[in-house]
Structures are given as C-alpha cells and as structure tokens.
Specification:
The chain has 289 residues and is an all-alpha fold. Helices cover 76% and strands 0% of the residues. It has 11 helices and no strands. The chain is flat, with a radius of gyration of 20 Å.
C-alpha cells in the first residue's frame, strides 16, 4: 500500500506539474516578444540561461519537488521531470498557436521551445507546491508529516536559513522578471521616467516587499516578535532581497539583449523598472514557497 500510495502521489505531482507549467508559463507562451526572442537571441546567452536554470531547479526541487526529496539525486530527478514537462507543454502550446511549424528552421524551433521552457519548468515545480495546497483527508495528514522533515520549511519558523530565504526570493524575482523583461514596455517606461520617478519607484518597491512579507497579514506572512525592532527585518531581509531582485534584473535584461549599446543612465533606469516586478516576485516567493 505504501508503494501504491507513493506512486499515486507522484502521478498527482506530475499532473500538478503540468498544470503549473501551463498556468505559470502561459503569459510568456502568448507573448509575441518571446516568440521573436527564440529566433534572434544569442545562442550563447540562451545556453547560459538554460544552464543557470538547472541548479536553480535542483535547489527548488529539493524544497518543493514532485514528492518529498531526501537526496540531491532525487532533487535532480525532479528537475529533469520538470524540464521535460516544460518542454512538452511549450512545444504543444506553441504548435497549437501556430508559432512553430514544419517549415521553420530547426534552430528557430529549438530556440522558441527552449526560451519558453525556462519559466514553464519553474511553474511545473511551483504547481506541486501551490496547486496541492488544499487537499482532504489522509493527504493533508501526509503534508503535515512532510512539513516535519528537515527539507521543508514552515513560513513562520525562525529556523529557516538565511541563504535559503535569499534563494527563494531570487526564484520569485527571476520568474516574474522573465515574464516582463522581453516586453517593449520596459524600455518605453524607462525612457519616460525621470530621476525622481526612479527614486520613488525604488522606495515603493522596497515598501511593497516589506509590507507583503511583514505587515499586511497575508497567509504565510512572517511574524516579528515584539522584542524585534522594525528595522531588523528591513536590513536583514528586505533590502538584501531587493538587491537580489536588482541583480536578477540586470542578468535577465542582459540575456534578452536589452542592455546592448545602451547608455549607463538608460541601463540604470531599465534595471529599476524591471526590479519593481522582480521585488514583488521576490516577496511573493517568501510567502508561498
């Protein structure tokens, strides 16, 4: 019975992974700029993005894989499965939308699928975590037992490692940045902004990050003890989390060739604009992962 239950749990995880890849990946699967990126993006940058995504998925799978993982080998297995699901979902959707055809060069087809598979693979892993949040009966009891394991984190427990917190924020920032960075609106907004706008957006991004996690009592919100000063979480988590979002934004913009031949001021403005959704994604990751 234990093996049967484990197999059923794994198959359910696969289904949630496929649903997650579809739900979290659909904004990019239906974005024209992403279709074009798959054609013209530098292959070295695309390859680097795919390679960077692998250790990110392994660490994420170790946290919220298709089933509870106790070894890095199991986490790598879940990463492989997530990537496979993402590739299949991306290929099928792009084909049904008419964005890959038999007449296209093979390199263009591979580029489009590979470009879409990165966010879809993250969505496949997130699907297991989020789509499985409300279950009945014995499965809820299984979840309670799993949360007692060494590799799962209860949001309000202070035992969560600092490095893992920053990593989860980086995942959220990367995922949301990937959805927004390819659009022309990022460049348009950055051109229209003044330095005053930029400063206000930085302060708003930091305020939203801090508020989401510590102030507005969302499910998963981190609670501070009465003895803890308000600035402790701000300087220990919120500001480093915003810097993670900034670094992720720089990397994503570089990958999508948005920084090529741009003046330093324009680069800075673009990074600040993209860091706004990146910061929101980072805060959301701390709440839901």
């Amino acid at each position: 019975m234990g093996r049967r239950h484990r197999s059923r749990h794994f198959l359910i995880g696969l289904g949630r992974g496929a649903a997650g890849a579809m739900i979290f990946g659909i904004p990019m699967l239906m974005t024209m700029e992403l279709w074009h990126l798959g054609f013209y993006i530098g292959r070295s940058r695309l390859l680097l993005l795919l390679l960077v995504n692998i250790p990110l998925l392994v660490l994420l799978a170790h946290r919220i894989g298709f089933e509870q993982t106790f070894t890095w080998r199991e986490a790598f297995r879940d990463t492989t499965i997530a990537y496979a699901i993402a590739i299949v979902i991306s290929a099928v959707v792009l084909f049904l939308l008419g964005n890959i055809t038999a007449e296209m060069p093979f390199s263009e087809i591979i580029g489009k699928i590979a470009m879409q598979a990165v966010p879809a693979s993250i969505g496949a892993l997130l699907g297991r975590s989020q789509l499985g949040a409300h279950r009945d009966g014995d499965e809820e009891e299984d979840d309670k037992a799993e949360k007692k394991g060494d590799h799962d984190i209860v949001p309000n427990e202070m035992s969560t490692s600092y490095g893992r917190e920053l990593f989860l924020m980086g995942v959220g920032a990367l995922f949301l940045s990937l959805n927004v960075a390819p659009t022309e609106e990022i460049i348009l907004i950055s051109y229209k902004m003044t330095p005053l706008h930029a400063l206000a957006l930085i302060l708003l991004s930091i305020a939203i990050m801090h508020g989401f996690v510590y102030a507005v009592a969302f499910k998963g919100t981190h609670e501070l003890s009465e003895e803890t000063p308000w600035w402790h979480a701000l300087f220990r988590f919120t500001l480093p989390g915003y810097m993670v979002a900034v670094l992720i934004s720089i990397y994503v913009l570089w990958t999508f060739q948005r920084l090529d031949d741009a003046a330093l001021t324009q680069v800075l403005m673009s990074v600040i604009v993209l860091s706004f959704p990146g910061a929101i994604g980072a805060a959301a990751a701390r709440l839901i992962l």
